């Protein structure tokens, strides 16, 4: 009788631990699936102003003051990396033009802020996008 009771107690403990483990795994998977940028409106800050970024239907557009903008086709390499191919520019004195390719990798996410590392023509920098809508 003791053996049978011990057996059922052991089965109960194993099932409880598996259930707890499954709940934790599901929570972690849910968190991970939200760690990538989707269509939406973001903001980043540069030396002179806040830049509004809109990602919609594989088009990436940066909006600057005075109706200036940079538009690019966004090509997702995976959920955390993309490259931009510049398709249209209305912003004077930039050291790049239409057809230029920039690569970006999202390195982490905290709340609604995405931290990234970018590379454009051999120059690298890091920054952050804040989801605003």
Q: What do you see in this structure?
A:
By secondary structure, this protein is of the alpha+beta class. It has two domains: 1-33; 40-131, Beta Barrel (Lipocalin). Helices cover 24% and strands 50% of the residues. The chain is built from one helix and eight strands; from the N terminus they run αββββββββ. The chain has one helix at residues 2-33, and strands spanning 40-45, 50-56, 59-64, 68-78, 81-90, 101-110, 113-120, 123-131. Strands 1-2-3-4-5-6-7-8 form an eight-stranded antiparallel barrel. β1 and β2 (50-56) form a beta hairpin. The longest helix is centred in the N-terminal third of the chain and has 32 residues, at 2-33. The chain is globular. The termini are far apart. 9% of the residues are buried.
């Amino acid at each position: 009788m003791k053996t049978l009771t011990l057996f059922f107690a052991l089965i109960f403990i194993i099932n409880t631990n598996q259930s707890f483990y499954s709940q934790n795994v599901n929570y972690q998977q849910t968190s991970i699936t939200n760690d990538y940028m989707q269509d939406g409106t973001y903001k980043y800050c540069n030396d002179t102003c806040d830049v509004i970024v809109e990602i919609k239907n594989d088009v990436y557009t940066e909006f600057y003051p005075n109706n200036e903008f940079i538009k690019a086709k966004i090509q997702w390499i995976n959920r955390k990396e993309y490259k931009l191919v510049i398709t249209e520019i209305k912003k004077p004195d930039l050291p790049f033009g239409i057809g230029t390719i920039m690569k970006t990798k999202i390195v982490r996410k905290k709340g609604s802020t995405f931290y990234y590392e970018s590379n454009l023509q051999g120059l690298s920098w890091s920054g952050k996008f804040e989801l605003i809508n």
